[in-house]
Amino acid sequence: MYDPTVARLTYRALLGRRRALILGALPLLLIVIAAVVRGLAGADDQTAADLLGGLGLATMVPIIGVIAGTGAIGPEIDDGSVVYLLSKPLKRPTIIFTKLIVAIAVTMVFSALPTLIAGLILNGNGQQVAVAYTVAALVASIAYAALFLLLGTVSRHAVVFGLVYALVWEALFGSLVPGARTLSVQQWSLAVAHKVSGDQTLITSDVGLTTATVLLVAVTVGATWYAGQKLRSLTLAGEE
Amino acid sequence: MTTLQLDHVSRWFGNVVAVNDITMTVGPGVTGLLGPNGAGKSTLLNMMGGFLAPSTGTVTLDGKAVWRNEEIYRQIGVVPEREAMYDFLTGREFVVANAELHGLGPKAAARALATVEMEYAQDRKISTYSKGMRQRVKMASALVHDPSLLLLDEPFNGMDPRQRMQLMELLRRMGDEGRTVLFSSHILEEVEQLARHIEVIVAGRHAASGDFRRIRRLMTDRPHRYLVRSSDDRALAAALIADPSTSGIEVDHTEGALRVQAVDFARFTTLLPRVARDHGIRLLTVSPSDESLESVFSYLVAA
């Protein structure tokens, strides 16, 4: 199911110089802000939760997910170089699964790790806030990577759609329309974080843990399966 | 022995018919897929390579369906027309990756790189390669698993004459080894030099198929017009018209040249330089005036 060569090609494409800069900028920003906030306001559990939740989980994680998820396959389909993968005796779902693993790993490294560091800076993991949000970021990384990998497979405008989903749906709609929150990767991962955190009032989710888990698994598996199907019938249009 | 079979294959995109009811068999040896730009060659090649589903009809390789059949790629090597090819890798890394995807190792990659004579630049990034070098590395990636069918989309585009000759020699060798090699081109001379068997596509239709010489005759058994400038136009005109291969000559004063109409193409092309030499006339310009591929094709389609 996992092909090391496909993985290597995907890693190198994803972590190419320009993309790596974008991937690195947001986490760095989060850590810098965490350091500034800690320096100015001192350690505070609520501030830590607000910053990790508002900037980290609601903004940074989905954006990193968009870049890694769509970037793991979108550019190859766009420029046609995916033909070198497709013209091999490789099962299409293997290509998708491998790219998913890479996208998850990259999203985790560039979102969960900085979340943990920022959390430790903010309040030294008081009330398990840092760990809780790190777990949430890890969980969200999986779902986002799968979702945006699918998007990268089916649409040429995957980055735009991905950002619209991440910023408009997750951040804006999610906070305005109660129903939208049930269908939000962010809320699902918050449900997991809620379970992990020491102070149960500090991190809350609109979704129960069971529902969240089921939806997370369903979205991840469903998106990955569908992306594999789409790749099987991917058409390479000629230049004519 | 690998045979690619197209059976009543059509492909349309919306209202546009790109490929219209084509039936053909491509067997061992080098076959040229000839047609003007936009004739549907790439669409056809994409269907042959399993990258595009026919709207109707079937494409099979030794009886096995090509579309949605990954196993078929153990037999097929593909050289796409598009440039993009993991530019951040070196040539060697790229070919090794292609070998690994076939379950092969660096040895197979090294062999393929040697075949296309790219060892000297294999450790340079692909982004620094010239068009011809890219083409050869693409070729190496297609040859790495020793395929019995090789599909090449406009492989000579952008190559300089020397690179072109090298690649032609390589393809000829592949064909002589019993592989099925199919390449597309919109340039008659390329196809003429390389392929014995050709398939002609015009406007999505299968216009002609068969031995090149037969089709060439179809194309050449018609008056050819040449524009000739020389050191002594009138003396040359008198000498040429004496031969039956020339059916008419006009002295074009505004152009300062002769317009020669030849009926026997092959004979005329050997006659002209000989006559010039025998009469001590220097040839300054010899250019075919209606040799553009489109006119050849329209002639073929009408035939």
Automatic annotation (TrEMBL), chain A:
One GO location term (cellular component): plasma membrane
GO molecular function: ABC-type transporter activity
Highest rank taxon of the organism: Bacteria
TM spans (from-to): 20-41, 53-74, 95-122, 128-151, 158-180, 207-227
Keyword Transmembrane: yes
One Pfam family this sequence matches: ABC2_membrane_2
UniProt KW keywords: Membrane, Transmembrane, Transmembrane helix
UniProt xrefs under PANTHER family: INTEGRAL MEMBRANE PROTEIN-RELATED, MEMBRANE PROTEIN
The protein, known as: ABC transporter permease
Source species: Streptomyces mangrovisoli
From TrEMBL, chain B:
Transmembrane annotation, as ranges: none
Record has Transport as a keyword: yes
UniProt xrefs under SMART domains: AAA (SM00382)
UniProt keywords, alphabetically: ATP-binding, Nucleotide-binding, Transport
Pfam families assigned to the protein according to its UniProt record, in alphabetical order: ABC_tran (PF00005)
InterPro entries named among the record's database cross-references: AAA+_ATPase (IPR003593), ABC_transporter-like_ATP-bd (IPR003439), ABC_transporter-like_CS (IPR017871), P-loop_NTPase (IPR027417)
Keyword ATP-binding among UniProt keywords: yes
ABC transporter domain: residues covered: 4-228
One Gene Ontology molecular-function label: ATP hydrolysis activity
Family: Belongs to the ABC transporter superfamily.
Name by which UniProt lists this protein: ABC transporter
Protein source organism: Streptomyces mangrovisoli
